[in-house]
Amino acid sequence: MNRYDVIVIGGGPAGAGASIELSSDAKVLILEKAKYPRQKLCAGCISKRSVDSFPAFNIKNSISGGILGYKGQKFVEKTSDECAVIVDREEFDYELIKKAQEHGANLLEETKVKHIEKTPTIYKVFTDKDMFEADYVIGADGYHSVARESLCKKPSRKFFISMEVKIPKDHLKDFPEDKVLIDIGVVKRGYGWYFPQGEFVNIGIATAEREDLLEIFKNYTKSHKRFNIDITKYKIRSWFIPFTKSRDELTLGKERLLLCGDASDLVDPLLGEGIRYAYLSGSLAGRAIKLAKKDALSLYKRFISNTMLKDIIYAGKIASIVYNIQELAFEFSQDQALIMFFELLKGNKTYEELYKWGWKEFIKNIPNALKFYLKI
What we know:
Blueprint: E1 3-9, H1 13-22, E2 28-31, E3 45-47, H2 48-51, E4 61-70, E5 74-86, H3 89-102, E6 106-108, E7 113-118, E8 123-127, E9 131-139, H4 146-149, E10 158-168, E11 180-184, E12 190-197, E13 200-207, H5 213-222, E14 237-243, E15 253-254, E16 257-259, H6 275-292, H7 296-307, H8 309-322, H9 326-331, H10 337-346, H11 351-364, H12 366-374
Parallel strand pairs: 1-2, 1-9, 2-6, 4-11, 9-16
Antiparallel strand pairs: 3-5, 4-5, 7-8, 8-9, 10-13, 10-14, 11-12, 12-13, 15-16
C-alpha cells in the first residue's frame, strides 16, 4: 500500500534527520532520486559544535587550526585544539540514511519526484515510478527542490555558485592534514578554499555575485603562493548553495508541507556551511510533526526561530561587512579574529558574540583603518 504518515523527499542530512526523528512513531517513506552510496559535492566540513548532533560517523580529518589568506598571496596561520572535522559526504550520507532505516524508515532509491498535489485530506506525491500518499510531506530535496517549487512557482533566492576539484593529496605534498585554508579577496562575495579530505585535498571557490567563476578559479589556484596547482587537469564540478539573511526571506513550508535544509535556504550565509543546519532543521521538522499533529508548521517555525535563526542572521551581518572590506578584514585578522572564529566552531561563542566583538575591535582600530585606506 502506498499510504504513509510522512513522505520525506530527499535522503541527505536533512531528510535523514527528519526520518530518524519520526520513524519510531510514524510510517515514513524516503524518496531519493539517486542510489546510495551517491556522490555529493561538498567540502565536508562539520564544526566541532555540531559533531555530537549526529549519529557516529567516520572522520577523515580532525582540524586543529586554520590558514586565512588574501587572494592566495599572503597568509596568517593559527592553531587550536580540535575545532572541526572533515567527512566524505558519500560515506557520511550513506551512514545517516542507514540509521534512518534502522529506526524504521522505508527508503525508495532511484525515484524522481515529478510533482506534488494537495487534496483536502492528504498529499499525493507523483514520481517516475508510482504515486504515494501521506498526511505530511517534508521537502529535503536541496536547492532544486520540487517540494519548494510546489509552494513558490517563481522563487527569488540568494545563492552561492560553487566549484570544486578533488586532488590526490600527494599532488599537494606540503598541504597540512589538520588545517583548512580559506582565501578571501578572490571573489566579490565569497571565498576560495583548500580542505584536507582523507586521501584527497578538496579545492573550491564560491561566490554570491555574477562573475566568471571558472576563469577566476583557474587563475586563483594556478597563481597560489603556497599551494599552486593546475586544476584543469582534474574534473571540475559545480553546484548551488542557497542562503538567507533575514527571517522574512525564509520559506519553511505551507500547511502540512514543511521544508528543511537547502530547500528552505537554511545555510550559513558567511561560509556556506549547510550540513549542520540541514540535519538540525530536518530533525526539528520531524519533531514538530510528531508533537503538534495539527499545526506542525507553526511549531516548526518556532523551533527554527529558537535554535538557528539568530545564528544565521548574525552570520549574514558579518558576511555583509567582511565581503565589502576584504583586504581590511584580512589585515585585522592578524591577531585575535581567527582565534575567536575557532571558538565559534567549538561552540564556545555565537555569531552574535562574534559580530559584537568585531564591531568593538573595528571602532577601536578606526585610526589604523583610516591609515590603511589612505596608505599613510
